[in-house]
């Protein structure tokens, strides 16, 4: 049964390296996490200091230690720049073999296919290494970009979960998307390989 116990393996795609973030990454990821347009449909408020980003990185790595979440930084291999992050907000093996993904990338990098590439890598990891059977994405019903991204990856929109999340602006309805192992197996899965 999969446990990560704090180990966040590097994953590689043609253009990207996905790796564990460290506190030294805080100034760069802060640019992304402080941008109102990026955080608009996420369950965090835009950050206002680099220290908050440092704390978040520490928190995410701590969550990996206790198998509650696993988050990779998304690095452009050609420049070494950290563009965003993605990973599993949660997973549950016993009784369901499912996990929920989360992701964001800074605005200058939007619509260049980067998140498609990054998500294919973590889907491969989720299905092949974590042995998940069902991967979920919870998307704000107004977040057209994220909905279109998941649809392009073969996810099915299952329906609206009412007031399923609580954020600084109150309870939020979210669309539930999912991709099953048997569906993913039929598609193109040759996008990630451990380094
Ligand atoms: C949603 C997000 C992750 C997409 O990342 P990205 O790297 O731009 O996505 P890609 O370039 O791989 O897009 C793949 C496909 O998804 C769809 N898509 C992505 N962004 C879209 C947008 N803003 N509007 C409509 N379709 C969009 C398109 O079909 C796109 O293919 P195309 O560019 O060939 O038409 C990015 O906009 C983002 O970080 N947004 C803010 C954070 C966020 O909302 N996270 C998700 C929370 S659920």
From TrEMBL:
Signal sequence, start to end: none
All copies of domain N-acetyltransferase, residue ranges: 16-181
Entry superkingdom: Bacteria
UniProt-listed InterPro entries: Acyl_CoA_acyltransferase (IPR016181), GNAT_dom (IPR000182), N-acetyltransferase (IPR051531)
Pfam families: Acetyltransf_3
Protein name: GNAT family N-acetyltransferase
Organism the protein comes from: Paenibacillus lacisoli
